Every structure is written in C-alpha cells, then in structure tokens.
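Write out the 3D structure for:
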Amino acid sequence: MEVGLRARPDLDHEVGARLADHEQRYTAGRRALVAALARAGGPATLPELLELQPSLALSSAYRNLGVLEDAGVVRRLVHGAERAHYELAEELTSHHHHLICETCGAVSDITFDERLERTLGRGFQQVADATGFVPRHHAIDLFGLCAACAA
C-alpha cells in the first residue's frame, strides 16, 4: 500500500484541454489552485490550499474550484467532516482510495498493490454481472481514526 499521489507530468496541458472543452479559460487563479492541489499531494481543505498558495483570494478560490470541478479537473470529497476536501481528479493523478479520520476529518490517499486491485476488480465484476450493473470505476473509503487521533 502506498500513501500519497503524484500529478501527471502533462498536468497543465490536460487541465487546459478539459477547461477548453467546457468553454473555460485556464486563468492564473485556476493555475494557482491546480498548483496548490498538486503540491498538497492529496486531499486538502480550502484553508489548506490557501496556506499553500497565499496569493489566492477566498471568494475566487471557491468560484474557481467550482469551475474546475465542473470541468472534471477537481474532485470534491465530502465525508461528514467540518470542511470539504478537494483533490485533483483521479485521471490526473492515479487510481486511489482514501483513509478518513472520523475524529479530526483528515483524508489521506492510499493505493493498493496491483494484485489487490485485480482481486477487487474481479469481485466487483462478479457482482455487476449477477445484477446486470455496468461498472465504470470504483472507490474505497476506509473510515476510522488517523494515527494522531488513535494515540
């Protein structure tokens, strides 16, 4: 199992293309948000993104996150925590899952080894075949206590 993810090397090109497909421009504010998300290395709250990129204005950051989410660049994670977490879309990083702390709300990315992913995929496909469901992707979120809260 691996913790943390890396953005694709062609991130800016892909983000620009996705925004263009939605008739949006890749503005300086959106570039700053994407850079902060890439630097965060995993899900981050808006205050955390503002800390990583102090030049961002709160009001435009919310608006730009909405545009980036609509264009499929950003994924908004809401797991009952006080604040939503944002991350780059899985297609811009890599397939992953989350560890979610039910006490402090921390969200961490994790990846499983290929063998486990294949086993899960086969199991999900068996369920889909039995029910006539057509799966496109899966996500697994593990809820519990982070190391700091468990201590």
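The helical segments are 11-21, 28-40, 46-52, 58-70, 114-131, 147-150.
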